[in-house]
From TrEMBL:
Oligomeric and partner information: The cytochrome bc1 complex contains 3 respiratory subunits (MT-CYB, CYC1 and UQCRFS1), 2 core proteins (UQCRC1 and UQCRC2) and probably 6 low-molecular weight proteins.
Record's protein name: Cytochrome b
InterPro entries (alphabetical): Cyt_b/b6_C, Cyt_b/b6_C_sf, Cyt_b/b6_N, Cytb/b6-like_sf, Cytochrome_b_C_euk/bac, Di-haem_cyt_TM
Keyword tRNA-binding: no
Lineage: Eukaryota, Metazoa, Chordata, Craniata, Vertebrata
Organism: Drysdalia coronoides (White-lipped snake)
Domain Cytochrome b/b6 C-terminal region profile: 52-217
Domain of life assignment: Eukaryota
Length: 217
């Protein structure tokens, strides 16, 4: 099964750790590559305005207008990270991380880092292991379908109030799933997580239908 293939066996063991360590090593290079491609395309093709048009007369050079903004944002982010690392390194740490490791005792509530809580919340909302694993993978892959299911004639959401409501509902759902993932696996958090996960996947079905409806308004 898919779970056995991901684990490298019938339980979490050394092959599982090796595979996930390798994944953590390769992902940064993949992200850097995609970011570089994005910057190159932005430099060559330019960015779209809210109306979705792309007139050549309104184009401006990538440097210095965009490059200086990017450098400012990167500087602020790195400075903030260095301040946290230097003066409060345990700000985002969980108290469980300070407990001495004991292979014979499993912590009552295991949870990943905050940036994985969204996927973890969807994973544990489904009791079946294979179903939870598939839902976790699909929660990421389904994001890539958004550009291909865009059915509205207008690219921006500025003049699409219904889509704006749907978008902010998606953001609220994302936050809800992240919040429930920090809670114990017990009612009512199980039900809330399952409902939020259902709403999350429903967004990618409702969004193209809503685009067709808005085209006729």
């Amino acid at each position: 099964t898919l779970t056995t293939w991901l684990w490298g066996g019938f339980s979490i063991n050394d092959p599982t750790l090796t595979r996930f360590f390798a994944l953590h090593f390769l992902l940064p290079f993949l992200i850097i590559s995609l970011s570089s491609i994005h910057i190159i395309l932005l430099h060559n093709e330019g960015s779209n305005n809210p109306l979705g048009t792309n007139p050549d007369i309104d184009k401006i050079p990538f440097h210095p207008y965009h490059s200086y903004k990017d450098m400012l944002v990167i500087t602020v982010m790195i400075t903030t990270l260095l301040i946290i690392m230097s003066f409060s390194p345990n700000l985002f740490n969980d108290p469980e991380n300070f407990s001495k490791a004991n292979p014979l005792v499993t912590p009552q509530h295991i949870k990943p880092e905050w940036y994985f809580l969204f996927a973890y919340g969807i994973l544990r909302s489904i009791p079946n292991k294979l179903g939870g694993t598939l839902a976790l993978v699909m929660s990421i892959i389904i994001l890539t379908t958004a550009p291909f299911t865009h059915t509205s004639r207008i690219r921006s959401m500025t003049f699409r109030p219904l889509t704006q409501i749907l978008f902010w509902t998606l953001i609220a759902t994302f936050i809800t799933i992240t919040w429930t993932a920090t809670k114990p696996v017990e009612p009512p958090f199980i039900f809330i997580s399952q409902m939020a996960s259902t709403i999350y996947f429903s967004f990618f079905i409702i969004n193209p239908i809503l685009g067709w409806i808005e085209n006729k308004l």
